[in-house]
Design goal:
It is built from 15 helices and no strands. By secondary structure, the protein is mostly helical. The chain has two domains: about 110 residues; about 90 residues, no CATH class.
Length: about 220
């Protein structure tokens, strides 16, 4: 990460506040202040790769993403290249769930706008999968207020189905019970996968132990 920040001329704490933009724009700090840039595919790909670094190394990149204005974030969500940058953050392996949830909460009052756009609807789907039940209920409640608009929109109708808006409007408690059940199953599966990974690592470590022949003493 040090190489990245040095190359982009973002070394101080104040300069690092622009780090995410510098990465996805692939420009240096001094150029960011004088020119208008768009997210480029390579920049979004690099950002995605950087989120595989350890959480401590990722922190400046995460903090800089969360510092971006909501207007810029919305514009990115609706843009073919910008949405890739958003997804890089949301799907980042070492971006903690609390940071992802913080971003998702900032999209409140904008879910209809996102759900009815080609690229924004994909962002809604990703946010939905990452959200806990309380956050999901906040999202679906907003969608339900304009369900007709969703159903009459090519992209919106898929969000309407994926978020089970019809079920929420008909029986809210039943919708909540089903979503909680799905969430519990996901957590159980995740725990199972983690356990299997640990067992495999332990087994592999045993296999790679050096063979030390026994030498009989005279």
């Amino acid at each position: 990460m040090k190489i990245v920040t040095t190359g982009l001329h973002a070394n101080t704490a104040i300069e690092k506040k622009h780090l995410f933009k510098l990465v996805v724009f692939l420009c240096r700090l001094e150029d960011l202040e004088t020119k208008r840039y768009l997210v480029c595919p390579l920049g979004a790909l690099i950002a995605q790769g950087l989120f595989y670094f350890s959480p401590n190394l990722c922190k400046p990149l995460i903090d800089s993403f969360l510092a971006i204005s909501i207007d810029d974030l919305l514009a990115w969500c609706l843009d073919p290249m910008g949405s890739r940058a958003i997804e890089a953050f949301l799907k980042g392996k070492n971006v903690d769930l609390a940071s992802k949830s913080k971003f998702i909460k900032r999209l409140k009052d904008h879910w209809i706008q996102l759900a009815t756009s080609a690229f924004g609807s994909h962002i809604v789907d990703v946010c939905w999968e990452l959200s806990a039940i309380e956050l999901k209920e906040s999202i679906v409640q907003e969608l339900a207020e304009k369900d007709r608009e969703l159903q009459n929109n090519f992209h919106g109708k898929f969000v309407y189905r994926n978020c089970k808006v019809e079920s929420y409007k008909a029986k809210k408690q039943e919708w909540r019970d089903k979503e909680e059940s799905v969430q519990r199953k996901k957590e159980m599966f995740k725990d199972l996968v983690e356990t299997k990974k640990k067992e495999k690592i332990e087994l592999d470590s045993r296999k790679t132990l050096p063979y030390i022949p026994c030498v009989a003493h005279p």
